[in-house]
Amino acid sequence: MGSSSSPITTTRFRCSSATRQLYRGKGGKDFETPKAEGSRRASDDRIERARRGDARAFEALLAEHADGVYAHVARILGPGGEAEDVVQDACVSAWRSISSFQGTSFRAWLFRIATNRAIDIVRARRRRGELPLEPAQDEVVTWAEPVAGGPDLDDLAADREAVRVVEEALGGIPAEQRAAVLLRDVEGFDYEEIARITGAEVGTVKSRIHRGRLAARNALVARGWRGPAG
Amino acid sequence: MQQHVRDDLSAYLDGALASADRALVDDHLAACAACRAAAAELSATARLIAALPRPDPSRRLVPSLETRFAWLRPVRSLSAVLAGVFVLVFMASATLDTGWRMGGGRAGGSAQTTSSREAGPAAAPQATALDRGAVPAPAASPTIALQEQGRSTAFASPAATGSGARAEVAPPADAVRAAPEPPRIGPSPWLWLGLAAVSGILALVAHRRLRAV
């Protein structure tokens, strides 16, 4: 990486470090503490028991993840009864097919079932005209130029208005992009896991995440915020 | 100057680039202030997205899978096993019954043979002849045949004392065929088939109910 005295190197290091710090531990990829390992073993044991038809073990598994899945679905569909129904349907569907579950991550599997259902509902809403048609997936997204004088994006994390703008921006992008961005930035899945969850190629996932973030960034910039000094 | 790398920045920030691509982006960022700024903006945006509020459900989302219909699992297993057992019993019973019916003449003959044996050794040739149908004697009606059969049995004992009565006591073959069937051993095979059907339906209903949970 070279010397950290150079401003260029400092900026580069800051980006990578910040992002790694943001995601470290979410996916459990960088390291696994003894506590996390014990939790994983307990989860594996529950999965095995659930495969053999132990409903109590399966309920315990669901209890670990159901609220997280709901939060994800609610960010796609909006909070409320429909998102709750989707999660419950996903739970029942998972129970019915638990014997055929072959993957290693029950959480990713549950997210896959729920995400696909949520995306189907968004598409149905758009077909019925309840939502505006979403932009084409391959539509070129340009970089909006920041307006000088606005607050720094780095200072916005606690800004409710900024959060609302981000939510709005994510609401306006295609459901597949939104799901990919949320799975990465909120849930901490890596690209390969997101590809399995959404049934897309890794390259497609990269593109969706980038476009989704860019849409949110452009929406913020349009409100007068500017990016961190480069 | 290299081409801008903005399209790769998200993957770069997420550590999802191959090492060669990552090195290219590193080199470009070292020389391009605009792309560094873009990377910083994307990173800040990602942090904002990560900070989105977490909505909480208004109700319990985990369905109760264990408590409501747990008792149906053993019912389903037992019913399925019973259905299989009943089918096997039905098949065995039906086979025996069919054999019994097809061998109805022999069964009558056996009965006759038994009574002949009880009558005495001299009656045995008579029974043998009866089996072979060697002594055909037309009967006007089953009733008469039965009467004649009864008479023949009655005469069987005297016949044991002398061979001259042999032709007189021989009953007609039709009388043997029309003899009342001996009692069936065990219930009808159809009973087992009915039980198999009931068990199968019960297993199916329990299975569907469990799947609907």
Query: Number of helical runs of chain B?
Result: 10
Extended strand count of chain B: 0
Element-level helix/strand string of chain A: HHHHHHHHH
* Chains forming the largest contact: A-B, 72 and 49 residues
Mean pLDDT of chain A, as a whole number? 75
Distance between the termini of chain A: 18 Å
Q: What would CATH call the homologous superfamily of the largest domain in chain A?
A: RNA polymerase sigma factor, region 2, helix turn helix motif
Beta fraction of chain B: under 5%
Instruction: Determine Rg of chain B (CA atoms, Å).
Output: 45 Å
Give helix % range of chain B: 55-70%
How many strand segments of chain A? 0
Encode the helix/strand succession of chain B as letters: HHHHHHHHHH
Query: What is the rounded distance between the termini of chain B?
Result: 63 Å
Q: Helix/strand-derived class of chain B?
A: mainly alpha
Task: Name the descriptors.
heterodimer; A: 230 residues; mainly alpha; Rna Polymerase Sigma Factor, Chain: A; Arc Repressor Mutant, subunit A; 2 domains; 9 helices; 65% helix; disordered N terminus; B: 213 residues; 10 helices; 0% strand
